[in-house]
Design brief:
about 300 residues, single chain, 11 strands, nine-stranded mixed beta sheet, two-stranded antiparallel sheet
């Protein structure tokens, strides 16, 4: 797609259509007119025509054809950078509206850190049995998904009570202890998290332990860190329910103080009375209660 012969002196004074901007964003994301058309359910000629209309409206060419794909012009890149937040905001609007008209048959989405999600996966059969016929969707991420906009239905969050809780229902369901584990009692190497030790209590704890020892690797993802520790790479910071249950690992330092974190089950107020969400929330709370001894490392 060569740059369109746009005459800046003839461009329309009208504001660009959001529909055309949405098509433009899709072309950039999918890398072609055909890919954007398939994603949007429109024909390639229609997509090409709407891009030309947008270029005429803005008075600047947006694309030029590269060796194997479309490339943004300088103006196109600037407009993409400006329009991208609009696309993200539109997605939030759709999720927020969906949160107020939930599908009773939709899965209940539970978000948690990878370590908590791994714990849930080991007990997924009993959670399924307790919540059936409700389907549970697990979303492992360190990012706090926005419950108000409907990114998730239930959040399991650690350490402190979430901020801005006026519209949230918060329930403490237990604690999780962490400790350092290795294949030997006196490891000479450490698997450190990638975080700045001044910004993370766990990273600061590992950094202090690492003094005089080799940092063999920096691994942020807990399941991968666990596998590296099992392979003998060095001592790793792991949840006690996982480290204590593995016969190949020994606890190098006992959990105490900041190494024991509270776990909160969080829902938006409008979700509290949804039967499916309440059913899953109760199943999660019961699981944490049953597993508390293992979770705190006793």
């Amino acid at each position: 797609m060569a740059p369109s012969p746009v005459d800046p002196s003839r461009h329309s004074q009208a504001e660009p259509s959001w529909d055309d901007l949405k098509i433009f964003l899709a072309v950039v994301v999918h890398g072609s007119l055909n890919g954007a058309g398939k994603a949007l359910g429109q024909s390639q000629p229609t997509v090409a025509r709407r891009i030309r209309v947008l270029e005429e409206t803005l008075g600047v060419p947006l694309f030029q054809r590269g060796p194997n794909n479309l490339e943004l012009t300088e103006a196109g890149q600037a407009i993409f950078d400006t329009a991208s937040p609009m696309g993200e905001a539109a997605g939030v609007v759709s999720r927020t509206a969906a949160a107020y008209r939930p599908d009773p048959d939709a899965p209940v989405r539970v978000t948690a850190t990878s370590s908590v999600a791994m714990f849930l996966s080991l007990h997924s059969a009993e959670l399924h049995k307790a919540a059936e016929p409700v389907e549970i969707a697990y979303i492992p991420t360190r990012r706090k998904l926005d419950l108000a906009s409907g990114e998730a239905d239930i959040g399991l969050r650690m350490r402190t009570l979430p901020e801005g809780t006026d519209d949230l229902v918060v329930r403490k369901v237990g604690q999780i202890a962490f400790a350092l584990y290795a294949t030997t009692e006196n490891p000479d190497a450490v698997i450190a998290p990638p975080e700045d030790p001044t910004l993370s209590r766990q990273a600061a704890y590992v950094a202090e332990f690492a003094q005089g020892r080799t940092i063999a690797a920096r691994i942020g993802d807990m399941p991968i860190r666990y596998q590296a520790a099992k392979a003998g790479l060095g001592a790793a910071f792991l949840p006690c329910w996982l480290g204590d249950s593995d016969p190949d690992l020994v606890q190098v330092v006992k959990p105490e103080g900041d190494l024991i974190e509270d776990v909160f089950l969080v829902m938006h107020r409008r979700s509290r009375n949804r039967p499916n969400v309440a059913r899953v929330a109760n199943a999660l709370a019961a699981l944490f209660k049953r597993s508390q001894k293992a979770l705190v490392g006793n």
